[in-house]
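---------- Forwarded message ----------

FYI, see the NADPH:quinone reductase record below. Original note from H. follows.
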Amino acid sequence: MRAVVYRRTGPSSVLEVVDRDVPEPGPGEVRVRLVRAGVNPTDWKFRAGMMSGYDEVTPGMDGAGVVDAVGPHVVGYAEEDRVWVFLAQHGRPHGTAAEHVVLPATQVVHLPVGVSYDVGAALGVPAITAHRALTSGEDVDRLRPGALAGRTVLVAGGAGAVGNAAIQLARWAGATVVATVSSDEKGALAIAAGASQTVNYTVGDPVAEIRELAPDGVDLVVEVAPAQNNDLDRAVTRVRGTIAIYANNGGDEFSIPVRETFSRNLRYQFVLLYTLGEDLLRAAAEDVTAALEDGAFAVGEDAGLPLHRYGLEQTAAAHDAVEGGAVGKVLLDIGEE
């Protein structure tokens, strides 16, 4: 099979396409013939030097394709099943930038009939991160239609992949969604994803604009840049609201005024999938799949998530596009549908 690998960390030029034996699944594992793979910031960050311990790494956490081998003791999967996969390279050297991937059956999810491989490959890290952020608030541990009814969610960076997933999932669960964006173009994408209103945080008074849209404060903030936005988040979140933080864009540290924060019973939830635990990962996968079955999650310009396609041999360029801030979702076209 063809696979992309790197043997040392560094810039995207360390990536190369090689031929490798098709791996065999062991007990509890499933092999998937990949059709599409998603590219996430995690992929280039690991490649650039945040991960070590393997002689050779194939990057890629997310993908979608067809089961073509099932290991012993696996129940619920058979050859030719259409699936999406997540965290494929977490804790192991070989991810989804390859024609085949082997991973535990717990990280393989059936792809509903009619849902494209493009959508399946765009789920994984963004959608599960968004799910965890959205279930960090008061009394909400699973997403279903109506689970967030009557609540207002503020999504910071509504044109990003996680932001897009958070908007679509929150809207499906019944929330009113406000998204912050940095341009009119990104605002149009957030509206296409399902946001009711957008606020351009680069002009005017974003706190006043958000407060006008949510006079009592927002119930939940899905935050990508806490070092930059924490003052705004506190100012617009209601008493007993939640600020869910899933990234460190714009800085690694921020301070919290203790009395002001605890007097309003604010809750901070930090979100990282790698330590989330199998139970929460599976709950997220089940809820995301339920949203897919309801037609509540899509990709492409009309869904606020433009697609950028690269061949497997162009994986280095795909990494560069993500690192450079490509707006939308970067996918690798790997195999035939």
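H. also flagged this: The mean pLDDT is 96.
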